[in-house]
User: Fold this.
Amino acid sequence: MTTAAAWAEVGGAVNAEALRMQAAAENRRVLALASPGLILIALVLFLPMGWLFFLSFTGDSGFTLEHYRRMAHPAYRKTFTTTFEISFIVTAACVALGYPLAYLMSQIAERARPFLLACVLLPFWTSLLVRTYAWLVLLQRRGVINDWLIDLGLIDEPLRIVHNMTGTVIGMTHIMLPFLVLPLYASMKAIDRDLMKAASNCGATPVQAFRQVFLPLSLPGLFAGVVLVFVLCLGFYVTPAVLGGGRVVMWAMQIESNVALYANWGAASALGVALLIVTLAILWGMTRLFRIDHHLGRS
Amino acid sequence: MPGGLDEAAVGQARTTASLPITISGVTKSYGAFRALDDVSLEVASGEFLTLLGPSGSGKTTLLMVLAGFVRPDCGSLLFGEREIVLMPPHKRDVGMVFQNYALFPHMTVAGNVAYPLKLRRLARGEIEERVRRALDLVQLGALGERRIDQLSGGQKQRVALARAIVFEPRILLMDEPLSALDKKLREQMQIELRHLHERLGMTTVYVTHDQREALTMSDRVAVIDRGRFIQIDRPRRLYERPRSRFVADFVGESSFLPVEVAGGEARLNGRTLRTAEPPGPERRQFLVVRPEKLDLVADQDGAGLNLLEGRVKEHVYQGESFLLYVTLGNDVEIAMRQPTRREVLERVPEAGEIIRLAIHPEDTILVPEEAA
Assistant:
């Protein structure tokens, strides 16, 4: 009997069991590779979060809603509105500054691109604290900017551009800009240049081609950047603490003062939980609102 | 996908307006590289002209100059009587099919086709009617609401075509529109595009590097190399009477045998050749040997034909034909192609066999190294 005939006899299931076991073993190995990461996430993310959640409902005498009730207090409400206001202004400023920059980066000749990219990334790689104090030096009453403006005769009195909302927004915009530019640039670079030519060939003026073809196609990248910047702004601490001069109190600073000043872990936890919930809600809402990947084709 | 165009739709979409194109003295340099070197060409109204050349020859650059996406260094472009070299692309009113289709991914099929009409501010009913007709014309009538990423390559190609003709441009430009399709679909689309052109009648400039496609579709073919036109002719003349080694080599397959020309006579290995046309003035020329123009002849036959003798080196069977690689006396190798009809197959020579090959004088073409 030939080998082929012998195989036919066992009904075509030759080696089926061995092949199945090999596949299963492969899956186990992949899982084993991922397990250190999974365990780490469970230990340092989910456990502490659960602990925070528990603390936020715990008072001196057991279970309490007091920490949450306290958020209705005017001082807290002021913090919430300030946080959202600053996040909104900074995000808008980042869009206004970042969109043209990302557009330029995506359209410029290949040779000039690394230079522009370095301009965006270099500050990104510098310490956050260093950049924030650098802004303090630039913006303060007798700082570089005020000195120049006075020397040029443009103003008589130094501008109040630090230790307030203005300074906070300037510093945060600078720090957040790369988070908007990088995803936006990536999505703009993926837009086929021939599409703009095609639009123009169809009879679109450069402005029409931009508004009707380029802009809609760059929206997924823009929203990715906007969500990233907005969410990061909500929990921002260092820059508003330094440049706000104590006058600008954001959410994260409120949490810090609850812990450092009043050692009230319950209140701090409740604020943290509330911030997390608001952030998740915004993420969810934005992705629901801009289901762009749905009507965007992959060619 | 069903073949052929929808005849009724073609009838409705017919437009008689077309414009001649006059290109004169167009030059475009990129640094030291001359993409277009003082190019002049007239395309007649309603003509299908193909720019054929290897990559980097300047054929796409010339098309982009016509569309307005590349600004030439100097030169004049007339559409009809009108100078358009300074006109921005969106005002030129030419249809264009891009190599990668360049369909808008955020619009539906109908949205893509309607886009040029919306920009021209046509009434909504008129737009719907024209989009329907254009989609019927390319046989995509049922797919108007599809997203672009749901289409096959051939369907995308048709949408791109519909978008280019929907506003009834009098000039249509196509940049290797079929290069991404597989061979069968490509050959089918070549015939369809040809029919579409015959009926819509717009002046068409078509770019390809595929010589077979150029020969199949065009009224005339302009062979371009290093930014200059080498030869502009009707397809049959281009293939049968190439005027230079480059054209003979690029259009079709050819081997070249060096020929001595003296006193109006061309001699190959001491034997005088009977040629289709009297040989040119150059001393050193080449005999163009096309594989399919060669015939096997028995020892006593071949009177009045040009004869070559050689030894069969290799024999390659390719289905519809077979190729014989033959080594001639002076170690030059040529190829010969024969169809696989039964009477031919019955006398296929073996490797090592000495054979006699004949070329008809009408097919005996001499070319200089460079075109005169």
Notes: Residues 294-299 of chain A have pLDDT under 50 and may be disordered. The beta strands of chain A are 58-59, 62-63. Residues 9 and 212 of chain A are 65 Å apart (CA to CA). Residues 94-248 of chain A form a domain with the MetI-like fold fold (CATH 1.10.3720.10).
